[in-house]
Prior knowledge:
Elements lengths: L1 H14 L2 E2 L2 E2 L16 E2 H20 L4 H13 L6 E2 L4 E3 L1 E3 L4 E2 L3 E2 L7 H9 L5 H6 L4 E4 L2 E4 L6 H5 L12 H16 L10 E7 L5 E5 L15 E3 L1 H7 L6 H13 L3 E2 L2 E2 L2 E4 L5 E4 L4 H15 L3 H6 L3 H5 L20
Antiparallel strand pairs: 1-2, 3-6, 4-5, 5-8, 6-7, 9-10, 11-12, 13-16, 14-15, 16-17
Amino acid sequence: MFCRRISGAVDALMHAKKWCGHLYNWFDACTHKELGTPYISLVDSGNLLASLYVLLGALKHFSLMEDVQAQIQVLIDQTDLKAFYRPGNRLMAIGYFPKTGKFTENEFDLYMSEARTASFLAVARGEVGVEHWNALSRALIEQDRHIGMLSWTGTAFEYFMPSLWFGARTGSYLHEALSFARERQIADGERGGLWGNSESAYYGFDARGNYQYRAFGAPSLALAAEQANGSVFAPYATFLMSQMAGKTGAILENLKKFQQIGGYGKLGYYDAVDVNARGRYRVVKNHMSHHQGMILGAVCNILRGGLLEDFFFSDPQMRAAKLLLEEKIPFYEKDWRAER
């Protein structure tokens, strides 16, 4: 079953239309034709590429499906991340519109963003120089003698999704920033209730009755204005944050709370729980394969000691670039003695 499904998925990827090796964001898996407005996302391409490295590492480790390995290698080699790069400001464009031949006007300029995976891959593969990694802004935040980094919307996705591929070494700036972010996610959560903000569906509907989707973040971590559509908590955010050691009690209690209020169904955790202004819990009863996949990936890392990370770093280029993730905590010029 595993080999058949992997083979079918890789075959679909091989035949799907691409731009510079990047898949279009939406395409029909049967006809391989693109759907909707043609668009290519740097974040989604980076996540797919990281997943291919993990899959290739796993197949090699277990000596499985050599023909598929060759196909995966082709997909990896054909993906051109440099196509998004803008040398003028040393940053990556958010996306590309093939129909008009234009990139998005804005770039990913923060270290703490969901594009961190694509940025790491681009540097590790030698497609862009380390100056791109250094150009990503480390927007500093401090509280209770701990420092962290701000993101645009303060979502768990921005901070912790890349942890599926590469963890954070204790003592590094990345580890400190992620620890800080988890603390703020818990603190900013509903008192006595849920915590874990990220992008997800929420209790709002379009004309066809489909749930709407947007980013919900921890206010104290966000550079952007606080989202105004109530408090929305996504179970997958808790799983992503659980990849870091510690806070086991708070994590288990949070997941238990989701279950107690009906946030768990036959197919696992629902996408989110939306808490309105009156404190009423409204369960968003849908499942997104992307979010379910992150849950399963995080559980794999938790139970197997970072197994996905091991497969990712089995690639020599990824392993050689690992030092990028071990950046030291910067010297913070503040006289703590004044607070004593």
